[in-house]
Amino acid sequence: MNTKTITVAQYGIGPIGAEITRLLLTKSWVKLVAAVDIDPDKIGKDVGEVIGLGREVGVKVTGELGVKADVICHSTGSRLRDVAGQLKALLERGSHVVSTCEELSFPLDQKIREDLQQVARAAQVTLLGTGVNPGFVMDKLPLTITSVCQEVKSVEIIRIQNASTRREPLQRKVGAGMTTAEFRAAVDSGKIKHMGLRESLMLVGHGLGVEFESISDEKIEPIVADREVTTKYLKVAKGQVAGVHQTIYGKGKINVSLELRMYVGAEAVAADRVIVKGVPDVTMEIKDGVHGDRATAAMVVNSIPRVMQARPGVLTMDDIPVSFR
Amino acid sequence: MNTKTITVAQYGIGPIGAEITRLLLTKSWVKLVAAVDIDPDKIGKDVGEVIGLGREVGVKVTGELGVKADVICHSTGSRLRDVAGQLKALLERGSHVVSTCEELSFPLDQKIREDLQQVARAAQVTLLGTGVNPGFVMDKLPLTITSVCQEVKSVEIIRIQNASTRREPLQRKVGAGMTTAEFRAAVDSGKIKHMGLRESLMLVGHGLGVEFESISDEKIEPIVADREVTTKYLKVAKGQVAGVHQTIYGKGKINVSLELRMYVGAEAVAADRVIVKGVPDVTMEIKDGVHGDRATAAMVVNSIPRVMQARPGVLTMDDIPVSFR
Q1: Nearest chain A Cα distance for residue B237, angstroms
Q2: Could you give the CA distance from residue A284 to residue A142 in angstroms, rounded to a whole number?
């Protein structure tokens, strides 16, 4: 695959957008042409400064997108209804859009999906939601592995991430250091939840061609520390919450289950695992698991050449091949 | 992905073609419309009988393809120059072709590739070479895994297959039971060689966007039994050959190495492994390895809906997404 220079705009310069921008700037086949954010503190500054690169790159952050780009990397929110307006406007400009919006990985809101579909097709451009999870380890990778099977009876997908090696906001987000009562209150108020697990389940089901007869509720439980755990940022006493255990499953002609455990002190057991029962059985493991922070930016940038070659419309990761580029 | 009924013809009813045909007949979205073979003993018989199904399926084996099919599954040979004429003729009929020809997985003969490219594009159809190896475990799967990486320094791909669980011809083909002298003579005469390892290397390099500065020779060495090994079909004494060890590597901006070990008595160590050094590192293992015989047919059949959606021309596995269907 030869890759010509692709003009790219970054839309949203939060922590993930900054990581994507840093990666874009390392790619010989990318020309960064714009960087957009709503933060008045960022607008007007060179994006190299904003993302902590220590050098100017010749692109100033603007509050609106002013130039045309082949592809826009979009990273402003997790919920489809919050970002649908942005996505429509970007597609209407005639750019492909690759977004980290978790709910876009498999849009469940049919009204929004249809709206985006029409806009993308009319403009002859592609819209893709991606990331490492959702977007790869719990959906695209398991789907890819099932391609060696003549029959599939069940797919069990397990991701155990050691939150100790992740940044502080993530350690807080999984509830590390809370009491179980605090944890349950945070779950009830929507503060503790990995976004995209249901989307991953539905993407796997769709890719395998199975309509689930029943889909479980998404269960979010605390993982309680059985010993004291100390990280760079916090300390968890024995009996306090170390992190989150989130599960969902679909039953049908093929049973699919997803289990995510994300907690501090998980170094000994961290892994990504896919267990396919079928003909043949396949048991795959990625030792220590794919580290989330770096991989999301990688998935976005590595998807860019593929989106350039894809058909127009709202696509999922099941519609495109991927690899490092 | 909804799959409408796809008409499929099987071209070549040897052991792999028979396995593909058996699988095609289990798929609700496939209508088998023809089965072709040159063997006079097979021609005129119902294909269900020929593949040992114990029932008629209403399709008689013919010596020539007489009907139009959306997709033709082609399985008649490993070498591109031997099958290029067949492939061209099938493409000219306006059918997509999915072939198990190992050298088609990444056509290295540019003259043949260009010929096929022109024919496929003129007829607006797709030609794909696939299988489990080449086609998946040592090329498509490693490429897919690298998509989580911001940087890739090297990719090490190791496949250790336990030949004890494979059919007799394969155990013979890896040299089990030979003396090392017999093995080396068989290598020299081209009788012992896993086809497609070089193609897998080149496919991985191409997918990663790296032009190798140097490519090693393909090394084929005996694996000598360190104990007596008995299989269903043969016995290997200590000191005799248990199987084959085949390696190739490319050096460049990214180093890629492929190592295939296929021998009897490998039950304790059988695995498929991909070790990516980069940002982040990724170490993947499929326990016991993907069993070859069933998986090749699976890859062919699971690729059919993807080829129907792909762009015309000569494609590789790096150009299409895959999953069980």
Answers
A1: 30
A2: 9
Q: What is the DSSP letter of B79?
A: -
A288 touches chain B (CB under 8 A): yes
The two structure tokens encoding residue B157: 């791909």
Buried b (16+ CB within 10 A) or exposed e, B213-224: eebeeeebebbb
Confirm or reject contact between A243 and chain B (CB < 8 A). Answer: no
The structural domains of chain B, with segments of one domain joined by +, span: 6-131+294-319, 140-289
CB A136 to CB B147 under 8 A? yes
Is the ipTM higher than 0.95? The answer is yes
Task: State whether residue B151 is helix, strand or coil.
Answer: strand
Buried b / exposed e along A283-321 (16+ C-beta atoms within 10 A): ebbbebbbbbebbbbbbbbbbbbbbeebebbbbbbbbbb
A253 touches chain B (CB under 8 A): no
Residue B140 CA to residue A297 CA, distance in Å, equals 21
Q: Evaluate the CA torsion angle A59, A64, A70, A76 in order and state its sign.
A: positive
Summarised one tens digit per residue, pLDDT across range B141-195 is 999 999 999 999 999 999 999 999 988 988 999 999 999 999 999 999 999 999 9
Taking the C-alpha atoms of residue A200 and residue A135, their distance in angstroms, rounded to an integer, is 7
What is the token pair recorded at A182? 């605090």
User: In 10 A of CB A41, how many CB atoms?
Assistant: 9
Distance set, CA A231 to CA A167, A172, B50 (Å): 10, 11, 65
Average pLDDT for B200-212: 97
Picking from A137, A129, A125, A120, the residue whose alpha carbon sits closest to that of residue A76 is A129
Could you give the residue ranges of the DSSP H alpha helices within chain A?
15-24, 47-50, 80-92, 110-123, 140-145, 168-173, 180-188, 197-208, 292-309
Give the rounded percent of residues in chain B with a pLDDT score beyond 90: 96
Say what the alpha-carbon torsion angle A28, A34, A40, A44 is, to the nearest 10 degrees: 90
Nearest to A162 by CA among A292, A296, A263, A285: A263
| CA nearest neighbour of B89 among B57, B123, B58 | B123
> Could you say which architecture CATH assigns to the domain B140-289?
2-Layer Sandwich (3.30)
A245 min Cα distance to partner chain B (Å):
23
Q: In chain B, which among 203-232 make CB contacts under 8 A with chain A? A: 206-209
Q: In what order do the strands lie in the sheet with B313-315?
A: B61-62, B30-36, B6-11, B71-74, B96-99, B126-129, B313-315
- The CATH superfamily assigned to B6-131+294-319 is NAD(P)-binding Rossmann-like Domain (3.40.50.720)
> One digit per residue, pLDDT tens: chain A, 325 residues?
456 899 999 999 999 999 999 999 999 999 999 999 999 999 999 999 999 999 999 999 999 999 999 999 999 999 999 999 999 999 999 999 999 999 999 999 999 999 999 999 999 999 999 999 999 999 999 999 999 999 999 999 999 999 999 889 889 999 999 999 999 999 999 999 999 999 999 999 999 999 999 999 999 999 999 999 999 999 999 999 999 999 999 999 999 999 999 999 999 999 999 999 999 999 999 999 998 879 999 999 999 999 999 999 999 999 999 999 9
Q: Taking a C-beta distance cutoff of 8 angstroms, is the pair B307, B128 a contact? A: yes
pLDDT of B280 above 60: yes
State the smallest CA–CA distance between residue A323 and chain B in angstroms: 4
Which chain B residues are closer than 8 Å to A291 by Cβ? 280
Q: What is the C-alpha to C-alpha distance for residues B180 and B229, in angstroms, rounded to an integer?
A: 16
Q: What is the DSSP letter of B271?
A: E
Structure tokens at B209: 């966007």
